[in-house]
Amino acid sequence: MTVLPSLSSFRRGWLLRLAASRRFQVWAARIPFVRRIARAEGAALFDVVAGFVNAQVLMALVELRVLHLLQDGPMAVPQMAGLCAVPPERMQVLLQAGAGLGLLKRHRDGRFGLALRGASLLAVPGLQAMILHHRALYADLADPVAFLRDGRDTQLARFWPYVFGAAGAVDPQVTATYSELMAESQVLVAEDTLRMAPLTGVQRLMDVGGGTGAFLAAVGRAYPQMQLDLFDLPVVLEGARTRLAASGFAGRLALHPGSFRDDPLPVGADAISLVRVLYDHDDSTVLRLLQAVHTALPVGGRLIISEPMSGGAVPDRATDVYFAIYTMAMQTGRTRSAAEIEAILSAAGFTSICVHTGFRPFITSVITARRG
Ligand SMILES: CC(C)=CCC/C(C)=C/CC/C(C)=C/C=C/C(C)=C/C=C/C=C(C)/C=C/C=C(C)/C=C/C=C(C)/C=C/CC(C)(C)O
Ligand SMILES: C[S@@+](CC[C@H](N)C(=O)[O-])C[C@H]1O[C@@H](n2cnc3c(N)ncnc32)[C@H](O)[C@@H]1O
């Protein structure tokens, strides 16, 4: 909590009782210094209250391709209304809301254009597809208490059938959809992972659960001499073949179809990466997977784990809300803190465990470890 830094629990309790008193709030609104804190708290609280509406305005802007349409310059409301097939008076409200969110800019002549944040959104790989797929998550959260008490049949779990193992990933069309979403959203994850955990000295890297090879492609570009191995479910690798053939890495990339639930991992790599894999699975699957990675690595071999992690003792706004609820809706895994992952790594026999908290925790954080 930002306004209550490190107070004793007695003073903290006293301050919390004050904040929860309506009479104190009325008084605080009149006193100059306290008024600033009260206003900031009010605005922050309203942001939480209005979150769903903000997200739905964003959804409409993306689905109607408003940001794309404004890419070449500002437009008048009636023209936008025609292009988006939305009545002009409603379009006005949507565009004004987009400007309120800082995504659009309202010009003096009443036209709307892109703001810096809206323009940035267009350039984030896969973000628009990610926003559109939130429909499934929002449907699951329509009744959040029912979801928490008994959220067993979720739309999101059906969106990502591979989490149920090889048996779930049978439909190549469905597999192609999620593989594409993962590959696009991988770009920033790869950037941050390689910045936090450079692969200097690694001869051969195996990416387990590497999807269609987007992480390995980034690694291959950064380390032109490295041998690359990709391990994933057969149906996923089938889809990856054409993409990888065109990537120019074919000569130094080997594909290993298999399921880490049922098959041993191939040996030979001196480093193994697990990028956005652990949080899809329960603790016992994660422990067995890390034990299998331990067995597949040579002594001193390196493991790189990269995924958004819970803040643990210091709850984090992005990962402890979005990713924790998201992975709960997927049903099979959970968003773990670095400390929780460290504990499983130790149980699997890893040493030299090192946590690199992400500078963008909503993109990823990294843990590295070695086979002792
Ligand atoms: C030079 C000066 C002084 C000024 C210039 C001004 C200027 C031009 C500034 C540009 C600003 C700029 C560079 C902005 C860059 C913005 C960026 C990089 C924004 C990035 C945003 C990324 C976001 C919002 C990422 C969201 C990621 C999400 C929602 C990921 C979801 C992932 C999921 C659900 C994964 C699921 C996997 C599963 C299924 C659980 O296994
Ligand atoms: C969230 S995706 C991450 C893909 C990629 N690492 C990335 O970050 O974009 C999880 C990946 O794990 C793979 N996976 C899930 N269960 C698996 C299993 N039992 N054996 C091998 N791969 C599996 C999925 O097919 C999928 O490609």
TrEMBL record:
Residues 47-111 form the O-methyltransferase dimerisation domain. Signal peptide: none annotated. One of its GO terms (biological process) is methylation. GO terms for molecular function: O-methyltransferase activity; protein dimerization activity. The keyword Methyltransferase applies. Keywords: Methyltransferase, S-adenosyl-L-methionine, Transferase. Residues 138-350 form the O-methyltransferase C-terminal domain. The keyword S-adenosyl-L-methionine applies. InterPro entries: COMT-like (IPR016461), COMT_C (IPR001077), COMT_dimerisation (IPR012967), SAM-dependent_MTases_sf (IPR029063), WH-like_DNA-bd_sf (IPR036388), WH_DNA-bd_sf (IPR036390). Gene3D superfamilies: 1.10.287.1350, Vaccinia Virus protein VP39, Winged helix-like DNA-binding domain superfamily/Winged helix DNA-binding domain. It comes from the Bacteria. PANTHER family: O-METHYLTRANSFERASE CICE, PUTATIVE (AFU_ORTHOLOGUE AFUA_4G14580)-RELATED. This is Demethylspheroidene O-methyltransferase. It comes from Cypionkella aquatica. The lineage of its organism: Bacteria, Pseudomonadati, Pseudomonadota, Alphaproteobacteria, Rhodobacterales.
